[in-house]
Design goal:
64 residues; mainly alpha; 2 helices; 53% helix
């Protein structure tokens, strides 16, 4: 009887050990960059962005 219980519990304990190992590695590994910070988007809400200098108030008045 004891052998039958031990044989039936062995796969459950193996699965528990595997799950706890996976969970521990996931919790304590060094975190990388956040997923949302992975790539730079092409959307520019401000004309010129970082690549070109901003227009001065004089240039804006002349354009209008």
């Amino acid at each position: 009887m004891i052998v039958a219980v031990a044989v039936l519990l062995l796969p459950a304990l193996g699965g528990l050990l595997l799950g706890m190992t996976w969970w521990e590695e996931r919790l304590f590994r060094a975190s990388g960059a956040p997923r949302h910070a992975g790539t730079r988007r092409h959307l520019r809400l401000v004309r010129g962005g970082r690549d070109t200098p901003a227009r001065t108030s004089e240039q804006r008045r002349h354009a209008a």
